[in-house]
Amino acid sequence: MIKSIILRVLVLLVSFSILSFSAKVKYSTWKKGLTFEKYLKNYNISKDILETLDQEDELLVSDIEKNQKFYELIASNGVLLQALIPVGEELQLHLRKTYKSYDLKIIPIAYQKSTYVTLLSITKNPHSDILHKVKNRRLANEFIRLLKDSVNFRGIQKGDKLAIIYDQKMRLGQPIGIPDIKVAMLESHGKKNYVFKHSDGKYYNAEGKVLVQKYMQKPLKHIRITSHFTKRRYHPVLKRWKAHHGTDFGAKRGTPILAAADGKVIFSGRLGGYGNVVKLKHKENYMTLYAHQSRIKVKKDTHVKQGEIIGYVGNTGRSTGPHLHFGLYKNGRPIDPMRLVKFKTEGLSGKDKKAYLNRKRKYTKIINTIFDKKMPSYVWNSINRLAVVPSMKQYYKNRGW
Question: In order of start, what are the domains of the chain with their CATH numbers?
Fold first, then answer.
């Protein structure tokens, strides 16, 4: 399926060239403050086309970032023939003129993902040095986020070193999306401070203690994940590409659903394909969503405590079987619930810790190799590319990456 989508995009791009005698390809930039509805109006396209989108699709359409690069095919008379507009890092809007009007579909983005290395000596501070030398603002942000609770950044001196191993998606020669950091290390005052990403998606220090301590409770007593949070999946019912802004937990019909944290009920009722839904507003602009319920127990504007029963697992709305769709939002934007839901009371133990220590040894060995060989960083969009680490893809693969 993905190959067919990529082929479709390639055919589209070839079509751009073939039609160049009567139309031109424009590589445009999404302006600040521009909405998709305004974009349609600029080309005299009816906003009725938005009615074909469901709630999750509408959220995607509203998530087009400023300065986002996108393609347009414009006829000689100014009519928009086609457009490919990325929404997030996994999907893109394909707007196409038809015989009568326009057609709007959401399709996957064709991108490449490889592993990269960054090794830097501090000249000013980690954030500005990564930004200046690697040209990747999101990498700088992620590095600071991961190490801020375990490193005193005020004590960093000129000449201290940092190393990062990360996966990065690339589109049109530029990084897209948030880098997936596998291991980050900051050497300061002769001490190496490590952060490792484990197979459970969480980050731990060298002793195996989880770094992020801010969690919500599980929405079910016993969990069985049937579908993870993703910004791209092929929907089994609709037979088309969609984002899945939440985690699905399989459970029997009637299983009690628990509030993940203290909050206020801001919605209680039917909500399109989500079926019976409860939405809870929490502190710090978090919001949780509990969908497909067979029966709702709480009413709007009431306050609930963490662990309180708010409804029961069901199969209402667009669903293939009884389950709970659990969504988490920050400032109205969906984030992976597994980043905040607490499944363990402490750090890793038993087989999990043993697997982590094996993973840690592999990562530490690679970091030491980076230091010993003084492997330079990959500099984005630069004429003087110091090193292209993807050529070492087999090297990392042999080490369990």
Answer: 2-108 (3.10.450.350), 112-212+347-397 (3.10.450.350), 225-339 (2.70.70.10)
